């Protein structure tokens, strides 16, 4: 059995990890670390787990587990690893932004399985992609892989309230979020950096802008993204490019039906729909921001890192109604 530890156990991504790992046939949860909840029952914070686990939060680390998941706020993972000694034999999966950009000062591999699977298999330290970055990258990377991105990319995407985490802010209170809609960080969202890194890795001569407008929706979870760019081929050519790119993908599927979030919420899927309008190709991409956009993808990556079948423990089912 793989012994796993979770750091930052009180947040949304940790809650999703717990739900998956408690049912994972190859994993035993060794500890759930939280500086705000030590000694308290895990099911007291993640109340859907009542009756399913007797685990308690702890303020103590077991530095010799097989894998550690870092579910800390952005800029805190690096600080945690600097302040705590972890065994060289322990694999690390970080769900923050701290190590997503390639650098000579760390050994983390970027964990987008559809385009980096072989590197992930041999990784000891892995940077899990961001939620917007996952949805958008999967919508446009097949074109970059075919060296067919020729113009600017325009993206509009809406995320649910859980994308902001559990900490309260002016834009996460129910009275603000309910019956409301807003844009934020237009053209400068932090996930643009990792999207650009993936694009230029596949198509080094790509120098156009990715124009991204992120939006807050008044629903709990999910991301609905639309991306369009100029494309000289026809729709059938585009579909063939995407289907070839994802022919071996465990969770990413190209479909022809209209898409809506209930198709993917509570699953680790990404669904993509392609449409052609004049000289523009429109790609719609939908994911669950907490699963394919965070914890589900983290477990998918862990499976690859330990030589397991990619779908192990991730046969999750959408709550359609």
Number of helices: 9
Largest sheet: 7 strands, parallel
Strand numbers in spatial order across the main sheet = 3-2-1-4-5-7-6
Query: What CATH first level of the largest domain would be assigned?
Result: Alpha Beta
Family: Belongs to the NAGSA dehydrogenase family. Type 1 subfamily.
EC number: 1.2.1.38
Main location: cytoplasm
InterPro entries: AGPR, AGPR_AS, AGPR_dimerisation_dom, AGPR_type-1, NAD(P)-bd_dom_sf, Semialdehyde_DH_NAD-bd
Summary keywords:
alpha/beta, Rossmann fold, Dihydrodipicolinate Reductase, domain 2, seven-stranded parallel sheet, 14 strands, 22% strand
Short note summarizing the structure:
The chain has 321 residues and is α/β, with parallel strands linked by helices.
Walk me through the structure:
With 321 residues, the chain is of the alpha/beta class. It folds into two domains: 2-128 and 294-305, NAD(P)-binding Rossmann-like Domain (Rossmann fold, 3-Layer(aba) Sandwich), CATH 3.40.50.720; 131-287, Dihydrodipicolinate Reductase, domain 2 (2-Layer Sandwich), CATH 3.30.360.10. It contains nine helices and 14 strands. It has helices spanning 12-21, 42-45, 77-83, 113-121, 131-145, 174-177, 191-202, 235-245, 295-305, and strands spanning 2-7, 27-33, 57-58, 67-70, 91-94, 109-110, 125-127, 153-159, 182-183, 210-216, 223-230, 252-255, 270-277, 280-287. Strands 3-2-1-4-5-7-6 form a seven-stranded parallel beta sheet, with helices on one face. α1 links the parallel β1 (2-7) and β2. α1 (12-21) packs across α9, α4 runs parallel beside α9 and α5 (131-145) packs parallel to α7. The longest helix has 15 residues, at 131-145. The chain is globular and about 60 Å long. The two termini are 35 Å apart. 48% of the residues are buried.
């Amino acid at each position: 059995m793989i012994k796993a530890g979770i750091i930052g156990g009180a947040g949304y991504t940790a809650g999703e990890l717990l739900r998956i790992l408690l049912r994972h046939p190859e994993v035993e949860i060794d500890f759930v670390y939280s500086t705000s909840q030590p000694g308290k029952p895990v099911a007291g914070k993640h109340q859907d787990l009542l009756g399913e686990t007797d685990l308690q939060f702890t303020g103590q680390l077991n530095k010799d587990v097989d894998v550690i998941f870092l579910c800390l706020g952005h800029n805190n993972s690096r600080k945690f690893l600097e302040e705590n000694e972890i065994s060289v034999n322990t694999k690390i999966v970080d769900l923050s932004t701290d190590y997503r950009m390639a650098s000579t000062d760390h050994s983390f591999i970027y964990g987008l399985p559809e385009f980096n699977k072989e590197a992930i298999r041999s990784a000891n330290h892995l940077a899990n992609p961001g939620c917007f970055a996952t949805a958008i990258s999967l919508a446009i990377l097949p074109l970059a892989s075919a060296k067919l991105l020729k113009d600017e990319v325009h993206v509009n995407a809406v995320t649910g309230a859980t994308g902001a985490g559990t900490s309260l802010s002016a834009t996460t209170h129910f009275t603000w979020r309910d019956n409301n809609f807003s844009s934020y960080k237009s053209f400068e969202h932090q996930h643009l950096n990792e999207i650009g890194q993936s694009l230029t890795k596949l198509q080094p001569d790509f120098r156009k802008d990715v124009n991204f407008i992120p939006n807050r929706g008044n629903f709990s979870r999910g991301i609905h993204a639309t991306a369009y760019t100029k494309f000289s081929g026809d729709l059938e050519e585009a579909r063939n490019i995407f289907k070839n790119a994802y022919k071996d993908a465990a969770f990413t599927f190209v479909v022809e039906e209209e898409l809506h979030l209930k198709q993917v919420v509570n699953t680790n899927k990404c669904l993509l729909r392609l449409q052609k309008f004049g000289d523009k190709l429109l790609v719609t991409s939908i994911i669950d921001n907490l699963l394919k956009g965070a914890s589900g993808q983290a477990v998918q990556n862990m499976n690859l890192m330990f030589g397991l079948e990619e779908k192990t423990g991730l046969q999750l089912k959408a709550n359609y109604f």
